[in-house]
Amino acid sequence: MDAQLAATQRRQLERHRAWAKSKGIKPERIRPQLLKLYAKLTTTSDTYTFNTQFDQPKILATENRLKRDSLMFVNLVGLALHKVPIFSSVEYPFNNPLVFYPDKNVFADAAAAPGVVPEWQCLEAIYNGQVSFKTNSTVRLEDFPTNTFRRVPQTQNGAAAHPSQGLEMVDINTSFYMSGQTDNKFTLQIGNGDRNGITGGAESANYVCLLLGGFEIVEGAKSTLRIEDAASFE
Predict the structure, then answer these.
(1) Average pLDDT score over residue span 19-31
(2) Cβ(83)–Cβ(96) under 8 Å?
């Protein structure tokens, strides 16, 4: 997160805490939060669903979902790739970083066989798709282009170097609330292209990670706060 965006978030936090105080909510219950929602990439699907519900089984141990009794205001979104190494048939998600574009130093640059699209190029379909968001049956975001979230560092590493890229979040010029007690689902529709190399191979598994940044109201979903009050703050 760059300095300008960090300053914006600090102002947002002050604004949210002032709003909380006006509703009788202790300001310290408004906390910065980052949700990390995962989907495992496959060669057979071009549509992936991300569920925010805390009580559903995690896709990966690194996932962070919205607590059932919390409310959350979201104003930052990111879309990352996570190449998870596999050792002795076990996935180790904590041993590789998130990257925000198909880095050829992370994902295979060479085709596995003649006429086969390389892994990195298959993954470009993630950033040539659309993301939508629905709460129950209400559409909140529809067909938002994912190339908005493709972020390449100004200086890239050489092939022998470990990839270094910070957390890349985008202010999409809107905000929305979510309750941990409602059905909040994000859907990713990837671009129409070759998917044969999208999964990662025998020694790794590729995941896509949707990141949602903003502010959590701890136990806000079970308080006397009406959901209309939260909606009015968007």
Answers:
(1) 81
(2) yes
